[in-house]
Amino acid sequence: MVDTTDANKKFQKELNAGTAALVLLSILARSDEPMYGYRIAKLMEASTDSAPMMKQGALYPVLRSLEGSGLLESYVDPSVSGPPRRYYKITDSGLATLKNWTKIWDQTKSFVDSFLERNNDV
Amino acid sequence: MCKSVQEYLDKLKKELGRSADPALIQDALSDAETHLRIALDEEKSKSPGLSEAELLIPIVAKYGAPAEVAAAYLAMEPHIFPIREQPPHPDTRSLLSKIFAVLADSRAWSAFFYMLLAFVTGILFGGWAILGGIVSAGSLIFIIGLPLFGLFLLSIRGIALLEGRIVEALLGVRMPRRPLFVQKGLTWSDRYIALVKDKYSWRALLYAAMLFPLGLIYTSLFSLLFVFSLSFITSPVLELIFRLPLDLFGDDVFTPVWFLPVVFIAGLLLLPLTLHLARLVGRLHGRFAKAMLVRK
């Protein structure tokens, strides 16, 4: 028999793989100024009452990946009060990608919802 | 459970160390250290009575255990434009097309560009490493020399990071994207000792100093090869139509007409061979840069 905890974890992990990038792009698109990883993690934590979908440490490789694809750009600010912080900012290509990804997300969401609603009706 | 940030970083390094690229390890450690130290500072101000180990429990629970975080980095690494470190695939082309295909290879052109740029970086970085090193080491006989030497070593680390970015962009070798930083909470003298005792500072200094002769050699060699190949290719047109002789080390030479096709073909072959050589030297230099500029 399949271990439900493991199955849940696996499902969550697979979902996070794509959604984390979408959420990060969206946060940085809405922000007026560049943000560093810790601030983004705190913002995500504060904006939801439910348990966080992913560990904060897993956000950084996604940020790196987005930067590598040219959707974000970053610079290091040698903070006086602590370790140097890497600030991220969305690029024009990132904004265009966010627009496309949001469309894809909406389509996927309504497609999945249509089946889940049918299940609820049963 | 981790009693300190350092212990967390050691565990993360161990988890990553089994299969990760050294540059990825340096970036992952830098991300983790920055995050954990900011979180720790924030929690300390809220609960001043608690020890670092106690404060770290909820922080690490949110950040993720070293094994989880390592897995996230390793899973994402193949998606991070490995710039141009793609897996090799079997090459079934003929010898001639292999030679000339390099003309359409952006890696070869960017390696060639690195070789030309090496003159500038060699003079700037190498010159600073050699001259700055001599002046700041000489000033050590005075008390003011100590901070000057520390600042000089810090500047060399900055140069190492910048050169790493150039090497990654032009030679396609994965290099660190985060700066190194000295552990927080140390006194100035401890930081100074850590900076001087860190082998990385000395390796970076040696690399920057070696960039001076290397840059001169790279740029001279490749610009000469490039100029030769272009002048050979254009020599039939220049000599027969415009009556312009070849300038061989100051001597004006007209090539015998029967020999012009040979010169033209030699030039045609020399250009792709120059690019092949640039790619090869670029690959070797990339390995050298990685060995010297990535913290072990």
Would you give an account of this structure?
- Chain A has helices at residues 4-30, 37-46, 59-68, 92-121; strands at residues 35-36, 72-77, 85-90.
- By secondary structure, chain A is mainly alpha-helical.
- Chain A is globular, with a radius of gyration of 17 Å.
- Chain B has 296 residues and is mainly α.
- Helices cover 72% and strands 2% of the residues of chain B.
- Chain B has helices at residues 5-17, 22-46, 52-63, 66-76, 95-101, 106-138, 145-171, 188-197, 199-240, 260-293; strands at residues 246-248, 251-253.
- In chain B, strand 1 (246-248) and strand 2 form a beta hairpin.
- In chain B, helix 6 (106-138) crosses helix 10 and helix 9 (199-240) runs antiparallel to helix 10.
- The longest helix of chain B is centred in the C-terminal third of the chain and has 42 residues, at 199-240.
- Chain B is elongated, with a radius of gyration of 26 Å.
- The two termini of chain B are 25 Å apart.
- The interface between A and B is medium-sized, with 26 and 29 residues.
CATH architecture label of chain A: Orthogonal Bundle
Low-confidence stretches of chain B: 81-88
Q: What integer value in Å does the Rg of chain B equal?
A: 26 Å
Give Rg of chain A in angstroms. Answer: 17 Å
User: Which percent band covers the strand fraction of chain B?
Assistant: under 5%
**SSE pattern of chain A, N- to C-terminal:** HEHHEEH
The residue-averaged pLDDT of chain A reads 84
Secondary-structure element string of chain B = HHHHHHHHHEEH
Helix content of chain B: over 70%
Query: How many E-type strands of chain B?
Result: 2
What composes the largest sheet of chain A? 3 strands, antiparallel
Q: CA-to-CA gap between the ends of chain B? A: 25 Å
What is the multimeric organization of the chains shown?
A: heterodimer
- Structure summary, number of beta strands of chain A: 3
Largest sheet of chain B: 2 strands, antiparallel
Shape, principal axes of CA atoms of chain B: elongated
Spatial order of strands in the largest sheet of chain B? 1-2
